[in-house]
Every structure is written in C-alpha cells, then in structure tokens.
Design brief:
The structure is a single chain. This protein is mainly alpha-helical. It has one domain. It starts with a helix and ends with a helix. It contains 13 helices and no strands. α4 (49-69) crosses α11 and α8 (135-153) runs antiparallel to α9. Helix content is 82%, strand content 0%.
Length: 255
C-alpha cells in the first residue's frame, strides 16, 4: 500500500514527502524527541494517514536506538518501563486495528483530534506530578493510551512522555527511557502493519529508506542545537502541531 501510494504520486509530492522527513529529523536532532509529532501532520497533507504511519515506523526505531542504548543499564530501564509496556501492547493492537479499518477522511479527523489533544497535553506536561503509589497503575494507563495513539497515528511517545515527566525523570534518564520505549513500540508497530494485508515487507523497506532524509535533518538539527533554546523551540513546534491538527480536521470534514 505504501509503495503504491508513493508510486502513483507526482514528483512534487515525493519531494514534499522527503522535505517533511527532513524537517521531522531536524526537530529530532534539535530537541531529541518529537519526530512523528511533526512528521505525521506534514506527511498527511500529501499521502494518506495509513501510509504515513507505515513510512514513519522504521525511522522511529533507528533514530531512537542510539539514545536507547546510551549509558548502559538497558535491562534495568526495560524493567522500569514494564508497566508501560503492559498497557502499550493491547493499546497498540487496538490502535492498529482502528487505523486499518478506517476511511481516509475519518482517519484524518481522528488524527486531527489526536494531534490537538497531544499538543495541548504536552504543553501542560511539566505541571503534572505522580505520587509513588500511582506510578504502577499510571504506567499501564498511559501506556495503553500511548499504544492506541501509536497505532492510529504512529505517535506512541507524547502521552508516555507526559508520564515519564510526571514521575520525575529529567535529562539523560528521561531521554533513555523515552527512546527505549519508542524503539520497542515502533518495532511492534512495524511488525503489526507489515503483517496486515494492507502492507508488506516491501513497504517496510521503503520505510527503512525513509531514514536517510531523517538522518540528514538530524545532522543539521544537532548543529543548530546550541543556537536555539530547546524549550522555546519545543513550544513553537507544539503550537504548529495543534494548528496542523486543526488543518487535518478541516480536510477530513470537507473531504
């Protein structure tokens, strides 16, 4: 489905898809997270939401793998994320099932609402704080809804990031757990999409090739990292995401 969607599009659309991936990689390189939050609304303006989700699956894995393995103690981090994974797995299965059964316009409407909700929640994330007794059930709940969001819009991270911030993680500890979660959830997303009748291993190959423009954007973003205040840049991106969500809603309702 992904190969067919890209093959039938004119060269200008292909160029727009590549540019969207470069911009998403730039965000990843600048602030360390947020690639699909920017990539999905951009890609959805040029290709359908289902193909956009498949296209982003492999870049999500490879772009987060170095940070997930950085500093060692990966096994310990996996155990700390176990409650999140317990909720994420059924949530992701449900999200993928919803995505694959949706009409294109309905998918845009849902993705639009999701983007607006996630953008707003992420802006409020630093104000949230979980007590120690709520970490376990909170992890399952946030993981479940993060999984649904990952299945519907290839964005498994934002809701879980809120949970990680709320339990007090900052700096390298936050980046490692967030990246490790993204690697695991994106790998499962790629497997579920590839195993469906709508996608194949050839689509997974195209998704893997999409890592090239993402890497290009990441390299430029890393060079710009010290010139832009990360918090300011992140807030501007989230505002743009909310606006993109509104645009998807408009296209979905009018389409």
């Amino acid at each position: 489905m992904l190969i067919r969607a890209l093959y039938l599009e004119p060269g200008s659309i292909m160029a727009a898809v590549v540019c969207s991936l470069i911009v998403a990689g730039f965000l990843k390189g600048t602030i360390g997270v947020g690639m699909p939050v920017v990539a999905l609304p951009l890609l959805s303006l040029f290709i359908d939401v289902k193909s956009a989700a498949m296209l982003l699956s492999m870049p999500l894995i490879f772009s987060n793998l170095p940070q997930a393995l950085e500093g060692g103690r990966t096994g310990k981090c996996l155990m700390q994320l176990m409650s999140v994974f317990l909720g994420m797995i059924p949530g992701l299965f449900l999200g993928v099932r919803i995505l694959l059964s949706l009409d294109a316009n309905v998918a845009k409407i849902i993705a639009g609402f999701v983007l607006i909700g996630v953008g707003g929640l992420t802006l409020l994330a630093p104000k949230l704080k979980l007590s120690s007794r709520l970490v376990l059930p909170g992890g399952v709940a946030f993981g479940f809804f993060g999984g649904i969001l990952g299945g519907i819009a290839a964005m498994p991270g934002p809701i879980v990031f809120i949970f990680l911030l709320a339990k007090g993680l900052r700096g390298k500890a936050f980046t490692k757990e967030a990246s490790l979660y993204l690697v695991v959830s994106a790998a499962l997303l790629a497997i579920l999409l590839t195993a469906s009748r709508q996608f194949s291993w050839l689509d997974a190959s195209v998704s893997t090739a999409a890592m090239l423009p993402v890497v290009l954007g990441m390299v430029v973003g890393q060079q710009m990292r010290d010139r832009i205040a990360p918090e300011t840049f992140s807030k501007l991106v989230l505002i743009a995401v909310i606006a993109a969500g509104a645009e998807l809603l408009r296209h979905g309702f009018l389409g």
